Amino acid sequence: MILVTGGAGFIGSNFILDWIAHEQSSVINLDKLTYAGNQNNLATLQGNARHVFVQGDICDAELVRGLLSMHKPRAIIHFAAESHVDRSIHGPAEFMQTNINGTFTLLEEAKTYWQTLSGEEQSAFRFLHVSTDEVYGSLGADDAPFTETTAYAPNSPYSASKAASDHLVRAYHHTYGFPTLTTNCSNNYGAYQFPEKLIPLIILNALNGNPLPIYGDGQNIRDWLYVGDHCTAIREVLAKGRLGETYNIGGWNEMTNLDVVHTVCSILDELKPAADGKPYASLITYVKDRPGHDRRYAIDARKIEKELGWKPVETFETGIHKTVRWYLEHAKWIENVTSGEYRTWIGKQYGAAS
Ligand code: NAD
Ligand code: DAU
Fold this sequence. Notes:
The chain is an alpha/beta fold and 354 residues long. 44% of the residues lie in helices and 16% in strands.
């Protein structure tokens, strides 16, 4: 049995589906079901006794304590977080609560639980904290990619809250000998991503004939990784990672936002041409930049490659084709996530014209 937090979100749900397909043990999935949590992501596991869903908050110490003592997991994989940079600019409080206090609560309860385990169970236990490359801040055009020893320099309320959580995890290992692992990954894309993030937002806006909003000059660079490759990397780190270590995970795939958007548009032009015959790229619209917008992220993934033998399987070309196809084939999933709260967010972020 493993305990996954945030398993109804984008990466967490991909991870659980991947885990059930490749591993033998069961999963307890603790998720608050915020706007980003969606049980439809796990619809294919309905009736599967190896997946137990619990709606609840990682900040609820009593709930976490009860789950640990009842299910006795051999590992915790911690995904639960507020994850969207733009939302953290509008309202940082939830980010501090879940990402910092929530991680602290989990660490406290997990440490207490771990201390009660007997010798073999205690030494097999792992707490894997899923974090981001954004904790390292922003790179200049000629800077070397982030390594695990790059100094932390978070620039948004989101990345600052994730950096704080990384430090707490580090401290619990250093002070208490608690068996932690931390992963810092670059931008993910793939199925089940909530359409507030760049790639699914662009796909949906294009299909609806809406403007494709590019912040600033569109030359900001991200290092894109297909979500399935991130899930494999996490399983490798859990199985073979050295205690107390951090592992950077990335796709060696730096692209400007404008190039990403053009790629998505040309795949859509090929798979589902617009009714008016115009290329989707004609919808590209430059909008006001994100405050404090990090210019470039790039991951040096040599440590995980050398130590654990992990490498991404998908190229951006194969991964983005799969992703666009997935959104084209899942109209019902899209309909469900784009009602209510989603419209409120889009109106707030992009204005009435969106
Ligand atoms: P997401 O926003 O899609 O999902 C987050 C999930 O956490 C949701 O299901 C939500 O309901 C749940 N959650 C939020 N607050 C909670 C709370 N207090 N208690 C319990 N559950 C709660 O996020 P994601 O994109 O899947 O990211 C997952 C993790 O991976 C995050 O920690 C994020 O920082 C990290 N990460 C994301 C990316 C990326 O590109 N998306 C890259 C690197 C790291
Ligand atoms: O690097 C890892 C991080 O990647 C994760 O930790 C975060 O949880 C995840 O959300 C993602 O952060 P970004 O801010 O890089 O992702 P987002 O999809 O929001 O934006 C990607 C780039 O596209 C960024 O430079 C901002 C730009 N953008 C985004 C949106 C939503 C636009 O130009 N227009 C948009 O409408």
